[in-house]
Amino acid sequence: MKRVYLLFIIAILTSIFSGCAKDDDKNRNTPTVSPQNEKPTALNLLGKSLDEVLKIKYNKAELKCELWTQQTVKLDLSRTSNDSVSWDLKGESTLPRTLTLKGLIQNHQIEVEIKINSVAIRQKLQHTDVNGAIYKMLYSPYVKLNFSYKASTQFPTGPFFASGNGTSYEVNERIKNVPLNNTLATQPEELDEMVINRGSFRDYVQCLLDTDIKPEYQDQFKVDPNK
Fold first, then answer.
1. Which of 16, 106, 166, 217 gets the highest tally of CB atoms within 10 A of its CB?
2. Pairwise CA distance, residues 137 & 127, whole Å
3. Could you give the count of Cα atoms lying within 13 Å of 39 in the half-sphere of its Cβ?
4. Which of 24-38, 61-75, 104-118 has the weakest average pLDDT?
5. What pLDDT, on the 0 to 100 scale, is given for residue 226?
6. Residue 119 burial by CB count (10 A; 0-12/13-18/19+): exposed, middle or buried?
7. What is the average pLDDT score of the chain?
8. What gap in Å lies between CA 108 and CA 182, rounded to an integer?
9. Are 142 and 173 in contact (CB under 8 A)?
10. Using the 8-state DSSP alphabet, how is residue 1 labeled?
């Protein structure tokens, strides 16, 4: 009788321990559930270096410049630019660096050189553009560059040359900067007893810092449109 009772007790204990082991295995295999809707916390950027701010705050930060070269009565920026260049602030740190833009149409050509001298972080900036929109930025990158160009135009009377050298500019975040907007008038042409006005030769360069700001830092860039 005692032996039967002992075997009964052993069976119960074995069942209990087996159940506990299965619960432990189940708990170990259950993935940890992260808190829902948890948002990254913005770090204080005061005193951070350029590289640190670019890494912490931005998914993307690129200097982009485009050149339009047209012979037209009115410049049309909706058309594809003749040339474009970009420079990654987060990936390429060797300075100075020179970017080149080229435009070529019938009887007219231009070559533009953009020399990037330095990149820095401005702790605070408020800027009003030509349309009256107010830009407000904190810990925002900006680029200092020098701008030069050489252009030549062939007229029936001979070639015409134009150039500009060493003009300094600052390009800020998401603000369009226009270092070149040249117009060279042409004479109306006679064709089959008709007078055709082909407009002017126009060269237009636009640069800006194109950025993708991480969600937790979105409040560090604001634009108040002109009311």
1. 217
2. 9
3. 8
4. 24-38
5. 78
6. buried
7. 86
8. 13
9. yes
10. -
